[in-house]
Write a structure and sequence with these properties.
Length: 189
């Protein structure tokens, strides 16, 4: 058995990892209440992208987190299929939006402490014309009953238009300040 000494690593370029290195593209921090967050990009520089969603929460309790793909005309409101899987929370949805959780997400606070928020890492691809937009990843959040939740998400949009953006929103209610959306290109993809 051989041992790898950490001090022998000179440089890490991501080539040893199956998803490559992450190249920052854009980051949006929510600084005040808003109804939705758009991420618009040409989505032509990389074949695959990584989206990290951190500490987002809703102003209304027990809500679902949703997404629309955007084409040149705005939000696409049909053609979504998504599968969620987690402990006792498996579901398949065919809806006019992409659902990014199974159990509703809570919004409890204690003073200035946000106790229930949503975190996720998603890999996305298929932005070109005549391709299916694809998303897969994992999430972590809590319901209003304080139960720790998490899902594996896999989904697609069956539309054939080029996807030039994504719109994130809640079932109803607004985003609280403090959440962050970070988009990365995946090198070598």
């Amino acid at each position: 058995m051989s041992t790898l000494k950490v001090n022998t690593i000179q440089e890490v370029d991501g080539s040893a990892f199956p998803f490559g290195s992450l190249i920052p593209i854009t980051s949006t921090t929510i600084t005040s209440e808003v109804s939705s967050v758009n991420i618009d990009d040409a989505f032509t520089a990389h074949r695959k992208y990584c989206l990290i969603i951190d500490k987002v929460s809703c102003t209304v309790n027990s809500r679902d987190f949703q997404m629309f793909c955007r084409d040149s005309g705005g939000n696409m409101t049909s053609g979504y299929r998504v599968m969620t899987s987690g402990d006792g929370s498996n579901g398949t949805f065919n809806e006019n939006f992409m659902r990014l959780n199974y159990n509703a997400i809570g919004n409890s606070t204690d003073g200035s402490v946000n106790q229930q928020d949503f975190h996720a890492v998603f890999y996305i691809s298929g932005f070109e014309v005549n391709r299916r937009f694809r998303i897969h990843g994992t999430s972590s959040y809590q319901g209003s009953d304080e139960t720790v939740r998490g899902n594996i998400i896999a989904g697609c949009c069956t539309r054939t238009e080029a996807v030039v953006g994504m719109n994130f929103h809640w079932q109803s209610g607004n985003f609280r300040a403090g959440g962050k959306f970070s988009l990365f290109g995946v090198s070598g993809s």
